[in-house]
Design brief:
Layout: E1 2-7, E2 13-19, H1 27-38, E3 43-47, E4 63-65, E5 70-72, E6 81-83, E7 88-90, E8 102-105, E9 110-113
Antiparallel strand pairs: 1-2, 1-3, 4-5, 6-7, 8-9
């Protein structure tokens, strides 16, 4: 199955739809099918669960960055930095490398043990 993200204002993803591979033989074929189905002229971009295209699987609220040709999740915390290669947000402090679980503490800029 092929997945397509509908771009809204500011290239924010408003929905993700599934289209049969028999129909979406190309990205444009999938886009045409969806616009014919909904009788619209919306902008759709194909996305992939395997992250084979556009860096990350699109989700509602994500933004499509045309320059990077990537879907980018909303920024989780003000201090986090976008990794330009993966297009994923990273904390300014590395996640601890042990068997414990942590939550990010934005106020103290550290990982707190759960």
């Amino acid at each position: 199955m092929a997945h397509f993200a509908k771009l809204g204002t500011g290239n924010i993803i408003t929905t993700v739809e599934v289209v049969s591979n028999d129909i979406a033989t190309t990205e444009q074929a999938g886009v045409d099918f969806l616009n014919n189905l909904y009788n619209t002229r919306d902008v759709w971009k194909q996305t992939s669960y395997n992250n084979n295209i556009r860096k990350n699987f699109a989700g509602i609220g994500y933004q499509y960055d045309q320059t990077k040709d990537a879907f980018i999740a909303p920024k989780p915390y003000p201090s986090w930095i976008l990794n330009e290669t993966t297009c994923q947000w990273e904390a300014p402090v590395a996640y601890p490398d042990d068997d414990n679980n942590y939550n990010w503490n934005e106020e103290n800029q550290q990982w707190d043990l759960m």
